[in-house]
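Letters spell out the chain; backbone shape is given numerically. Both lines appear below:
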Amino acid sequence: MKTFKENFFVKTSYSYVNLLLKLFPILLIFFCIPLLGYSFSGKIPVTNLDLFKLFGYQKLAFNVSFQTVVLAIFVLVVNLSVVVALFFGLKRLNDFLKNVYEEKPFIEENGKHLKFIGIITMILTIVIYLSNVFAIPADTSEVISPTTRILILLGNSLGVVFNPYLIIGMIVLVIGEIIVHAAKLQEEIDLTV
């Protein structure tokens, strides 16, 4: 029977996630380069702040006012929260794969890593899809009837509930709980023997 260190998929996954974690700051710099594209013409380019295009703004630049500054800060905070969540999710995934690579797959720490990754996956899925729910451009109110607008919001809301990434996050969370439970059972068995 092959060990995890000899398994192609374990080695490849661990190497890939480890490399991605190490290159994350460089990737973040490339994502943040559009923030430098501010024109000093008195306009706020919201597309430059929305790193992951969560809010669906297509080339909108607003005149500077209190509302647009608040909108820009909100978009930036949501995007930075996604970056932080991705970093900590990658870190936990890297720790999990390191433990598996080192022949320690069924320890309580791995269960906690998987539970964290599952929660992060579910939260990011909800944030991304809820941002899409509210991303209907305001200037289409003359083109889209109120009934159609409600149907779009309802369809986007149902997309959140029946999203495959949300289900994957739940499955990863349950697998993490199973590993934690199995590790505790193994510890009890070891203590009784």
In short: The beta strands are 43-45, 61-63.
